[in-house]
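Milestone M4 deliverable, item 7.
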Amino acid sequence: MIILDENIPESQLWLLRSWHVTCHQIGLHEGRKGTKDDGILALLHRRRQATFLTRDDGFYESKLCHRGYCIVVMNVSPEEVAVFARRVLNRPEFATKAARMGAVIRVSHSGLRVWHQGSAHELQIAW
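Output delivered:
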């Protein structure tokens, strides 16, 4: 399941859904509006193999790697989130839930920066 943070415009949710990406949004389908970061982490622990998309840079920390979920921090404009999310989800390294689990990914125009659970080093991937 893809879960979008409430800081991502609802238009991006509908765009992803139009591409047949099953996703829910905090405050609409999951949790409540205004859910704090620790509440979102608790939600991710309860969901099975969730991928959480956010624009909150505070989630890009290696200590947040967990085998039960993936966090994707979108460092792009709000109107670009769906396009870049699709690019990430179509990459061979992240195309399946199993491949994404345990990763914290930062997405930008220049590429991806990735922490994997158990890794001491950040990985950089160019588009």
